[in-house]
């Protein structure tokens, strides 16, 4: 690695961690502290539990603060180099703007990769654990695994008609047990029969139903066909793990689980626009570290009359505000299907990327 690159990396690291501390402190002071205070005053949550909730909330906050810190750190570092005429000296020595900016882009890309890892492996588990703790604090018992009023209606991809319709009053994904179950079967897209059972259990060869009746559906209406103590379904009904995805919160899912959730929803004829936007956010928000570095480097290189932390912080706040306004608009449009979900999730990154490339080209030509 060139000595110059090492020097620029050294300049970038300190303001980056300053940005992480500053923006994390803002999130904690304006949001998290008030939530924890409410938990203490409203539900009497113990101090030790509040400390656990505090640390469980940090991964989700860090995912947001890393891109902001990348923006602030890059602006501050290049502002300092520009203010001390070091950028001018580098360019006089034959160093190109691309070479000067490259360390910031690499650091932004590495930060994006780390953020994706945090989003995938830490945030879902931390959110799931925090939700369990808060449920126990509010209700005095552990969060139940049982779902109520489960509906499954997978669609045939070729005919776009239901394969079957299933309703269960209660469903426990861990034990693989459903209670008060109704399954309507279809033949060539038309209702064929209805199965009603008091209970269903997932075994090695599929779902088994107990204490129920099967009815045939014809022009004369519904008529009993078979009463049974035990019956194995002829329908290929989803396994407990797959069906249980419907009851899990999006912010408790990793990328694989969220992708499976989208596939399951689409099998049931649902659009899953909001879930698709969220899936793309798992990459677009972390990648903002690289996008911000691309924009911040030419901004920092541009000579400032009063370069410093206050100037860099002020510029960062303005850019972050614009970024999140664009993200909010894109999220709303993508979640409603007005625009493609991927475009809704990436809109802010596309705009900032185009502006950053334009500024970088303009700076290189000066």
TrEMBL record:
<keyword id="KW-1003">Cell membrane</keyword>
<keyword id="KW-0812">Transmembrane</keyword>
<keyword id="KW-0472">Membrane</keyword>
<dbReference type="GO" id="GO:0015920">
    <property type="term" value="P:lipopolysaccharide transport"/>
</dbReference>
<feature type="transmembrane region" description="Helical">
    <location>
        <begin position="54"/>
        <end position="78"/>
    </location>
</feature>
<feature type="transmembrane region" description="Helical">
    <location>
        <begin position="342"/>
        <end position="361"/>
    </location>
</feature>
<protein>
    <submittedName>
        <fullName>Lipopolysaccharide export system permease protein</fullName>
    </submittedName>
</protein>
<dbReference type="GO" id="GO:0043190">
    <property type="term" value="C:ATP-binding cassette (ABC) transporter complex"/>
</dbReference>
<keyword id="KW-1133">Transmembrane helix</keyword>
<feature type="transmembrane region" description="Helical">
    <location>
        <begin position="90"/>
        <end position="110"/>
    </location>
</feature>
<feature type="transmembrane region" description="Helical">
    <location>
        <begin position="12"/>
        <end position="34"/>
    </location>
</feature>
<dbReference type="InterPro" id="IPR005495">
    <property type="entry name" value="LptG/LptF_permease"/>
</dbReference>
<feature type="transmembrane region" description="Helical">
    <location>
        <begin position="313"/>
        <end position="330"/>
    </location>
</feature>
<dbReference type="Pfam" id="PF03739">
    <property type="entry name" value="LptF_LptG"/>
</dbReference>
<feature type="transmembrane region" description="Helical">
    <location>
        <begin position="283"/>
        <end position="301"/>
    </location>
</feature>
<feature type="coiled-coil region">
    <location>
        <begin position="248"/>
        <end position="275"/>
    </location>
</feature>
<keyword id="KW-0175">Coiled coil</keyword>
């Amino acid at each position: 690695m060139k000595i110059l690159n090492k020097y620029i990396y050294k300049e970038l690291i300190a303001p980056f961690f300053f940005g992480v501390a500053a923006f994390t402190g803002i999130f904690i002071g304006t949001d998290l502290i008030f939530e924890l205070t409410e938990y203490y005053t409203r539900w009497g949550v113990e101090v030790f539990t509040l400390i656990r909730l505090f640390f469980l909330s940090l991964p989700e906050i860090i995912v947001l603060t890393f891109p902001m810190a990348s923006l602030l750190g890059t602006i501050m570092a290049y502002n300092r180099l520009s203010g001390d005429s070091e950028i001018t000296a580098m360019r006089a020595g034959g160093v190109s703007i691309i070479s000067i900016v490259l360390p910031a882009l690499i650091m932004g890309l590495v930060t994006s990769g780390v953020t994706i890892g945090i989003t995938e492996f830490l945030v879902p588990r931390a959110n799931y654990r925090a939700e369990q703790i808060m449920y126990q604090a509010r209700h005095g018992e552990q969060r139940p695994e049982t779902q109520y009023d489960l509906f499954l209606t997978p669609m045939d991809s070729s005919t776009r008609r239901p394969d079957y319709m299933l309703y269960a009053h209660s469903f426990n994904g861990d034990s693989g047990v459903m209670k008060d179950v109704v399954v309507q079967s279809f033949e060539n897209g038309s209702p064929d029969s209805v199965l009603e059972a008091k209970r269903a259990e997932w075994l090695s060869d599929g779902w088994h139903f107990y204490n129920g009746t099967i009815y045939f559906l014809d022009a004369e209406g519904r008529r009993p066909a078979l009463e049974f103590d035990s019956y194995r379904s002829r329908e290929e009904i989803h396994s407990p793990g797959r069906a249980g995805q419907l009851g899990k919160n999006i912010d408790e899912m990793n990328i694989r689980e969220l992708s499976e959730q989208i596939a399951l929803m689409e099998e049931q004829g649902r659009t899953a626009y909001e879930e698709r936007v969220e899936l793309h956010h798992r990459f677009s928000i972390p990648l903002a570290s690289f996008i911000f570095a691309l924009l911040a480097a030419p901004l920092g290189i541009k000579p400032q009359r009063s370069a410093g932390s206050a100037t860099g912080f002020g510029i960062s706040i303005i850019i972050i505000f614009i970024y999140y306004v664009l993200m909010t608009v894109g999220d709303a449009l993508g979640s409603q299907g007005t625009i493609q979900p991927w475009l809704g999730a990436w809109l802010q990154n596309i705009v900032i990327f185009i502006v950053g490339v334009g500024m970088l080209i303009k700076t290189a030509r000066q």
